[in-house]
């Protein structure tokens, strides 16, 4: 998964691909959002990737991200007052499901 914010054009995009345990391609996803910060784009990318995995029945998932900040937001206790608290909460909910 990855995302980008292009400050010169005010575009924000995200995307990722899902592979099986052998590295073979399964699915991809991508999208764009209104101009935002990179943290929002990275959190949104993680949510969309996990949601796609869950919807196709994949329960044992390894996610790779360049954003240590986003990983910490997910690992730390939920701060409901965080700017992206609702989205982080949805990710935590996906991760807590059986």
Q: What is shown here, in short?
A:
With 98 residues, the chain is of the alpha+beta class. The chain has helices at 38-55, 68-75, 85-96, and strands at residues 2-6, 11-19, 25-33.
Spatial ordering of strands, largest sheet: 1-2-3
Helix and strand sequence: EEEHHH
Number of helices: 3
Q: Which percent band covers the strand fraction?
A: 15-25%
Helix content: 25-40%
Distance between the termini: 23 Å
The largest β sheet comes out as: 3 strands, antiparallel
Architecture in CATH?
2-Layer Sandwich
Taking Cα atoms only, what radius of gyration do you get, to the nearest Å?
Answer: 14 Å
Task: Report mean pLDDT, rounded to a whole number.
Answer: 89
Q: Any idea how many domains?
A: 1
Shape: globular
How many beta strands in the DSSP annotation? 3
Low-confidence segments: none
CATH domain class: Alpha Beta
Coarse structural class:
alpha+beta
Q: Find the CATH superfamily.
A: Ribonuclease H-like superfamily/Ribonuclease H
* CATH topology type: Nucleotidyltransferase, domain 5
Ordered list of secondary-structure elements with their pairings:
Elements lengths: L1 E5 L4 E9 L5 E9 L4 H18 L12 H8 L9 H12 L2
Antiparallel strand pairs: 1-2, 2-3
Report on this structure.
- With 98 residues, the chain is α+β, with helices and mostly antiparallel strands.
- It has one domain (2-96): Nucleotidyltransferase, domain 5 (2-Layer Sandwich).
- Helix content is 39%, strand content 23%.
- The chain is built from 3 helices and 3 strands; from the N terminus they run βββααα.
- A 3-stranded antiparallel beta sheet has the order 1-2-3, with helices on one face.
- The mean pLDDT is 89.
């Amino acid at each position: 998964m990855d995302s980008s914010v292009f400050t010169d054009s005010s575009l924000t995009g995200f995307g990722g691909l899902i592979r099986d345990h052998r590295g073979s391609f399964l699915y991809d996803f991508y999208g764009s959002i209104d101009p935002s910060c990179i943290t929002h784009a990275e959190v949104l990318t993680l949510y969309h990737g996990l949601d796609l995995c869950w919807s196709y029945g994949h329960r044992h998932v390894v996610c790779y991200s360049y954003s240590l900040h986003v990983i910490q937001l997910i690992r730390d206790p939920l701060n409901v007052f965080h700017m992206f608290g609702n989205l982080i909460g949805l990710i935590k909910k996906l991760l807590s499901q059986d």
